[in-house]
């Protein structure tokens, strides 16, 4: 799901720095999440999706479809 979130962020032209600002966090937080160095809980995932913005549910469905 993180790969899809990264792609969605890039598709809308949001940088890691901008996403960090939208979240009230540093760019390093975004980088660590995107590199898999930091995991997100469900609530954090939803907050991050909405900050991009991308629908968290549709992203989860795409992730599930790619597993089949």
Could you please describe the fold and organization of this structure?
- It contains five helices and no strands.
- It is mainly alpha-helical and 68 residues long.
- It has a single domain (2-67), classed as 434 Repressor (Amino-terminal Domain), CATH 1.10.260.40.
- α2 packs across α3.
- The protein is globular.
Topology:
Blueprint: H1 2-11, H2 16-23, H3 27-35, H4 42-51, H5 56-67
Helix pairs in contact: 2-3
Keywords:
about 70 residues; mainly alpha; globular; 434 Repressor (Amino-terminal Domain)
Instruction: Return Rg in Å.
Output: 11 Å
Residues in helix, %: over 70%
- The proportion of strand residues reads under 5%
The whole-number mean of residue pLDDT values reads 96
At a glance:
The chain has 68 residues and is mainly alpha-helical.
């Amino acid at each position: 799901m993180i790969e899809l979130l990264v792609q969605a962020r890039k598709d809308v032209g949001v940088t890691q720095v901008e996403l960090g600002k939208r979240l009230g966090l540093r760019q390093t937080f975004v980088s660590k999440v995107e590199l898999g160095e930091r995991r997100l809980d469900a609530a954090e995932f939803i907050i991050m999706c909405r900050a991009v913005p991308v629908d968290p549910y549709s992203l989860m469905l795409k992730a599930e479809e790619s597993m089949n």
